[in-house]
Give the backbone structure.
Amino acid sequence: MQYKKATAILLAVLAAAFYAVNVPVSKLLLEEISPTFLASLLYFGAGIGLLYCINPKSHRGEKKLTRKDLPYTLGMILLDIAAPILLMLGLKSASSANASLLGNFEIVATTLIALLLFREKVSKRLWAAILLITLSSGILSFEDMSSLHFSRGSLLVLAAAACWGLENNCTRNISDKSTFEIVFLKGIFSGLGSFLIALCIGEPFPGLHAAAAALLLGFVAYGLSIFCYVRSQNTLGAAKTSAYYAIAPFIGTALSCIIWHDALTVQYFLALAVMLLGSVLVVLDTLQTEHTHSHTHTFTHTHDGVTHTHTITHSHPHFHGMHGESHQHRHTMHTLLRSHNSLQHR
């Protein structure tokens, strides 16, 4: 079990690293490709790339999607059409470094939706992380702190993050099915949807070299990232997987500084510190394991001159780190007697 969880964590980190290149390189490609066409090519790159690089026969043992999965599959595709278009439009005016950090708002959206719609548990530590990440996103979204003027580009990036948060939860509900099938459907149909929108609004066709670069970026930043993410999500759940995904914006920010030489303000560093603290809390929360198991106690007590021996079995939850540390249970005589009497009267 611990090996399976460790593998899932590694996949989540790889998913984050692959996706981190998306924002800074996409902003570069936006100089030659219009936003909706770029969103289309990125998903086409994911679907086509996986089709050629990953052998579908190796996934024959996995469960296939069924008619019951159709609502989640359609939701996943529609949100994957909307989110990258919003992100590309946001990148036209937002700085690459800001946009990279704002991507962490996806954690907030994913977790809140997982809580409200799918009843996943959210700990106090994760609530604290959500508040910090939201605060950091708010700081980054103000173009002028003195006049509280919001940046249009930042708001579009936040809208994209919210779409992906809902999409993560749709994908979570089918993540036990064929990973290859999920990623292929995401890539081809989300790419096709964006392509049709680009044609309808009259965006110009991109050049061949720019289109090839976008397809390659899509294969890495979307295809390989989504493949690792879905595999991880099947073990960790939507909220937990998005927690490890929190490192993507920091990698993206570093790349943005290298590629774009973004001017980093005091406001940016304040947001970075708050975001970093929130991300650390998220990872600490993810590393904590909760489980419940039963255990037996035998105890002896005397009353009215008669000695009694009782054996009771009960269970309660335990929290500990991911390495499976040993733990002990200590109960007072009063607690054991109360537990015994409770069981006797059921």
